[in-house]
Structure formats: C-alpha cells, structure tokens
Amino acid sequence: MRVCVQGLSVWGPGLSGWPQSARVLRREEAWQHEDLQLPPARCLPANERRRSGMLTRLALALAEEACTQAGLRPEEARGVFACSNGDGTVVDAILSAITTEGGEVSPTQFHNSVHNAPAGYWTIGHKTQVPAVALGCFDWSFTQGLLKAAAECVVENTPTLLVVYDLPIPGPIGKVRVTEYPFGCAFVLQPRLGLEGICVLDVSYDPTASGYDNIAHPELLNLSHLNPAGAGLVLLEKIAHQTVGLVRLPCQPGTLSVAVQPC
Fold first, then answer.
1. Residue 56 lies in a domain
2. N- to C-terminal Cα distance for the chain?
3. Which of 35, 79, 196, 243 is the most buried (most CB within 10 A)?
4. Whole-angstrom Cα distance, residue 162 to residue 44?
5. Mean pLDDT of successive 10-residue segments in the chain (263 residues)?
6. Are the C-beta atoms of residues 259 and 206 closer than 8 Å to each other?
C-alpha cells in the first residue's frame, strides 16, 4: 500500500511538535528530558475541555498539529486512534473508588474510562460525523494502527488521520504494565501520491517475517521501548532525515515493512 504523508506531529518529554522534534531526531538540536507541556484543547467547548484528561489533550494536540500542517480540515479525514493503555489515571481512580468503603465513581471519570474517549472528543470538538476507529493492540498499537490507517486511506480513497498515544499508568496496574514516559505521534495520510507532502510510505505486512529496526538516536532509545507509541520513533527518525530507506517494525505476528521516499 502506497500513501503520501502530508502532516506529522510528535509530543513527548523534550519533544514539542514536529518541527522541533525533527531537529532532535536529526541531532541538530540536543534532546533534553523535560516534562510534557501540552497546548490547550481549543477545539472543545468549555464544559468538555474541563472534563477531558491529559490523555485526551495529548491525542487532540497531535491530531490538531498534523491536520494543520497538512492543510486539512478535520471533517475531511477518517480517523484511526491507537492507544495501548487507555486512560490509566482514570482507571486507577475508578478502581480506588470502588475498593474504598463508601467510594463513589464520578460519572465524568466513567465517561473518560472508555477506550474511544479521545476519538469521541475529537468528533465532538469538530462536529464531524466522519468515521473514527479506536484500536488497542498492546505493544503493537503503533504498527497495527499504521496498518489500519494505510488500508483505510487506500481502500476508501480518502485522507486518513492516524493518532497514536500512551501515558504512564499510576497505582498497582502501573507496576505491572510499565510505561515510563508520555508520548504520542500523528500522521495525515493521503491516497493521492502526486500531492505536495513530506514523504511517500510503501507499507507491506508479512506475518511470517521476524526482526525489526531500532532508533539510531541513543538518547531516545528508552523512550522508543518504554512507551508503546514510541515504536513509531524509528520511522519518524527516517522521515526526519529525509532519506530513502526501509524501516521494519514489529507487528505481532510478523513484521511491518515501511519503505520511505521523501517527496
């Protein structure tokens, strides 16, 4: 499947949007671990903005930047929102409430606990009825999300927004499902290869293949392994360098191969 990347976004510790993140990935700018600072979710009405948590704000920041960079109105793109952990902070709060005598679960917390809440906030904020899918595929959420988004883009012949994001989980669950850093990335994929864009991706899946590539940037290696969405960093590094190449990503079972051709 061949798709054109028209917009990108990256947010994480020491990574604030695609232009700055691209400089870090090319090692033109030193990476420094800094707390994630997200822009406000301006697309949401005031009431919804107050109800939304950090996971939703991360997803919306990614989606907004990628669409803006691509010059694409949100209502023009199908959405694929991929997340491994869901909103662990909300789940931990709910579990704490129901295991405490007299504890009550907040309706807002319950509302935010569902896996497709960020996708729902996105459609609410932009008043769009274009389909938006929410995926959860454990450590392979980035690659399965990319495979799903590329397939939708080609088969439906329509722009497709891929948003992949995860946060650390507090409490007892976080000790079992370890995610050390917040991170997310987003891609706007176009089926028309002749459009002005960032690069062309040729995506192929082999369920019998094994082996994958690691990010070359030594300081970002832990981030790429200790957040499920960080699996996308090796592909983002190749795109940032604007060089032709092949990136192999783990996709249980098998391997997702992505050939990158700068536009």
1. yes
2. 17
3. 79
4. 20
5. 97 97 97 89 85 92 96 94 95 86 78 91 92 96 98 97 97 93 97 89 95 95 96 98 96 95 94
6. no
Q: What is the CATH number of the domain that holds 166?
A: 3.40.47.10
Q: Which domain holds residue 50?
A: 2-198
Q: In this structure, what token pair is assigned to residue 190?
A: 């176009």
Structure tokens at 250: 């783990």
User: pTM value?
Assistant: 0.95
Element (H, E) at 206: strand 199-206
The overall longest dimension of the chain from CA atoms, in Å, is: 62
d(CA 13, CA 92): 23
**DSSP of 83-137:** -SS--HHHHHHHHHHHTSTT----HHHHHHHSTTHHHHHHHHHHT--S-EEEE--
Q: At what angle do helices 54-70 and 117-126 cross, to 10 degrees?
A: 50
